Amino acid sequence: MNPHDTDVQPLAITAGSPSAAVKQRTLSAIDGVRQLPPGLPALAPAPAPAPAKRTGRVLPRGAGRFVPVACLAAAVSLAGLAVWQHEQSEQSARRARQAYEQLEAVSGLLAAPDARTAHARAANGALVTVAASGLRNVAVLTVDGLPAPAPGTTYQLWMDVDGSMRPAGFINGDGTVPLRGSPVTATAVGLTVEPAGGSARPTTDPLLLMALPV
C-alpha cells in the first residue's frame, strides 16, 4: 500500500473501559516490572557532537603534548616523594643505630667493676659528667643544662691523646653520648663550639677540659 494514497481513511480510536480480565492481567504483570528510582528524570539521548568548523586557526605546536607532560610531572613528584621517604627511613635507621650504640656503651660501662665518674661545669654553665672504664675501654659523657648552639655551629667533643686533641663526637643538647676513642690512651676530654659539621682540630677556646677518671 502506498502511504501517499489519499483515499485511505484514518483509523478511529475510541476510549472505553477495559474488561475485568484485562485488568487482572495488568495488575498481575505489574509485580514483575522493575520500577525506576523516584525523582529521576527521563534520560535524553546525548546530542551528536557538532562537526568542527574550520576557522583557519592553527593550534600552537606541542598542544597535543599537554597530557604526557602532566603525566611526566606527576611521575617526577612521585619519584621525589619516594626519595624523601628513603631519606627519612635512612635518618630513622641512623638515629636507631646511635641510640643502640649509646645503650650498649652505657650498659657495658655500668657493668664494669672499675667504672669511675668525674664532674665539672663548662664555661657556658652546663654540668658535665664523664664516666669511664679501663677494663671495658669505654667512656660516656652526660650533659645537663647545655644551651642550644648558635645557628651554623655545633658542640664538638675531644679527647686529649699525648697532647693532641682528637675528635670524639658531638652533642647539641642534654643527654648522654659515648665518646669516640680509647679512654685508656687519653688523659682528658674537651668541649668546644665548632662550625656545623665539625672540625679536624679545635678552632675555639674550650668550654670544658677535664681529666678522664681512668
Give an overview of the whole structure.
This protein has 214 residues and is α+β, with helices and mostly antiparallel strands. The chain has a domain of 147 residues. The protein is built from two helices and eight strands; from the N terminus they run H-H-E-E-E-E-E-E-E-E. The chain has a four-stranded antiparallel beta sheet with strand order 1-2-3-6, with helices on one face. It is elongated and about 70 Å long. The N terminus is likely disordered.
Gyration radius (Cα, Å) is: 43 Å
Total helices: the number is 2
List low-confidence stretches. 1-18, 32-36
Strand content: 15-25%
- Report the helical percentage: 25-40%
Q: In this structure, how is the largest beta sheet organized?
A: 4 strands, antiparallel
Extended strand count: 8
Order of helices and strands: HHEEEEEEEE
* Class by SSE composition: alpha+beta
Query: What is the spatial order of strands in the main beta sheet?
Result: 1-2-3-6
Label the overall shape: elongated
- Rounded average pLDDT: 75
Distance between the amino and carboxyl termini: 124 Å
